[in-house]
Design goal:
alpha/beta, 2 domains, six-stranded mixed sheet, 7% strand, cell membrane
Length: 526
């Protein structure tokens, strides 16, 4: 293989280059996949949890966020986003849709910056091709499509990983460097570690690369010159660390929560293979086969090793930023609780796509190069299309949104709606037009954090004694039959109606109970 990444420089001064034109096409396709019926699917637990967290006052939000294993920045952003644009399904999901699109633009900029000709500042045609293909792979990735229309922090974290890397490459690769790029890099790095804890791995890899680049690639003539080169990096690293230190006690508390009660299975090569299988989107088309995931992981390692053999700064950067979080995730999962999860690797997966595109761009035989580009894009596009079909099937399921519509047609003001678990409650109220007399059953012992307890207020619970004291003539119960979570209705009530509402993640049931002394003239819930 022969590199063309520093030759055939494109010196055009026109703003709309062919590469930019192709990027616009990629963005259009990405928008179609992400915006398709974005408002039609019910909020599920993770989304509803974020929406519920965003309802807390600013002074309380930081405290509640400590009881959840994620940093708080996304909750603050979502709170102000809702204040500006409202709490509709479309408005709230745009908080992930927009960062998802920015991630595609970000990886395009990263590839161009990593391999820009330092003499002319321009990019070769091979660089432009690799940048567009990397953007296309992110645009069509089922994992990135999924989290670009769900109200979670993953799309935002991916965008921050891309743009922080772009700013870092700009400040390292351009002479003279500009202070504002150091500021932008530092701010986006801080935002990343406050968006998701896996951002710590990405930011660590960024600083490791920057230190190695300044010390090894640009060797200083004297100690003072080396110090002057490293000083901006040291200031940036110190600023990021100092900004994150206030969250450190909360991070350590969250770590204990995860170690004691996280939902993941113990780490094994089988679970690792299953994670990689889902991460690359194979789950959209075929049944779970961990071996396929492990094979994909081995190919991933081979891609990064082959790229690193190129011995260019951009090669080292992509290999480090793509590989380090995987290695760190494996080590933590082996020696502590398993945190090897597909969506956590979104932040560095985009750099793996970039590494693949760059590696293919170095094939000197153009027909083979274009053939490999086509296979990668067509294969990812096929999985995106399968995901589209799966989403269409999910849209037809009533889920919690349909269950709440059914309840609100029949439930009168003042009638009790009791939800089986906080994990279901947060979604119930997200789809409720009126929240009066909607509570979660409290069994007497605190729910684990994995059930969304961090988003709950004490006045949103009802205990058995409190339910009995209310003596409601009717009790609506919202159960999750798939998890065997069912409201324990107190003695003296009998079931008079029920209906089932399947969803894409669980099967729900609405049950109506009446006191034995009441005349059951109430229409059944079905």
């Amino acid at each position: 293989m022969q590199s063309e990444l520093t030759s055939n420089t494109d010196r055009t001064k026109h703003r709309l280059t062919p590469a930019v034109g192709m990027l616009l096409v990629v963005l259009l396709i990405a928008m179609i996949f992400r915006v398709h019926r974005i408002s039609d699917m019910s909020f599920w637990f993770d989304e509803s949890f974020c929406l519920k967290m965003a309802e807390f006052p600013i002074s309380d939000l930081w405290v509640h966020a400590k009881e959840d294993p994620h940093p708080p920045l996304f909750y603050f952003i979502l709170k102000y986003w809702i204040m500006l644009f409202g709490s509709s399904t479309l408005a709230t999901r745009l908080a992930s849709f927009i960062p998802g699109i920015l991630s595609i633009i970000g990886i395009y900029l990263v590839v161009k910056e990593a391999y820009r000709d330092p003499q002319t500042g321009n990019c070769s045609s091979s660089v432009n091709s690799a940048a567009v293909v990397a953007a296309a792979l992110v645009a069509l990735s089922p994992l990135h499509i999924l989290w670009s229309y769900q109200v979670r922090m993953y799309a935002a974290g991916t965008a921050l990983a891309a743009f922080s890397s772009w700013f870092l490459l700009k400040v390292l690769r351009r002479e003279p460097s500009r202070k504002r790029d150091w500021y932008f890099f530092t701010m986006t790095a801080i935002a990343l570690v406050y968006t998701h804890n896996f951002g710590l791995f990405v930011v660590t890899a960024q600083y490791l690369f920057a230190a190695g680049y300044l010390l090894l690639y640009h060797r200083a003539a004297s100690l003072s010159q080396a110090g002057s080169r490293l000083m901006p990096l040291l200031i940036s690293a110190a600023g990021t660390l100092l900004a994150w230190l206030p969250w450190l006690p909360s991070f350590l508390h969250q770590r204990e929560l995860v170690v004691e009660g996280f939902w993941t299975k113990p780490f094994s090569w089988e679970t690792a293979g299953a994670t990689l299988f889902d991460m690359f989107g194979f789950d959209q088309a075929i049944n779970m086969t961990p071996v396929i995931g492990l094979i994909a992981g081995q190919i991933m390692v081979l891609i990064l090793l082959l790229l690193a053999f190129g011995r260019r700064p951009g090669d080292y950067f992509l290999a480090l930023i793509a590989g380090f979080p995987f290695v760190a995730g494996i080590l933590v999962s082996i020696f502590s609780r398993n945190i090897f999860n597909d969506r956590y690797f979104m932040f560095n997966q985009i750099f793996l796509f970039a590494a693949l595109a760059v590696l293919i761009s170095r094939i000197s035989l153009k027909p083979a190069q274009f053939c490999l580009y086509g296979i990668c894009i067509a294969g990812t596009g096929f999985l995106a299309y399968e995901q589209w079909l799966n989403r269409e099937a999910d849209f037809k399921l009533p889920a919690i949104q349909g269950a709440m519509a059914s309840i609100e047609e029949r439930r009168k003001p003042g009638e009790l709606l009791l939800v089986c678990d906080p994990a279901i409650y947060v979604s119930v109220i997200a789809h409720a037009r009126e929240r009066g007399d909607i509570f979660t059953f409290h069994p007497g012992e605190d729910y684990p954090f994995t059930h969304g307890a961090a988003a709950m207020r004490e006045d949103e619970y009802l205990r058995s004694q409190e339910i009995a004291q209310r003596r409601d003539p009717w009790i609506w119960a919202f159960d999750a039959d798939s998890y065997r979570w069912r409201v324990p209705v107190p003695p003296g009530y009998r079931l008079v109606g029920e209906n089932s509402f399947p969803g894409f993640r669980a099967k729900y049931a609405v049950r109506l109970y009446s006191r034995a002394t009441e005349v059951t003239a109430k229409p059944k819930s079905n």
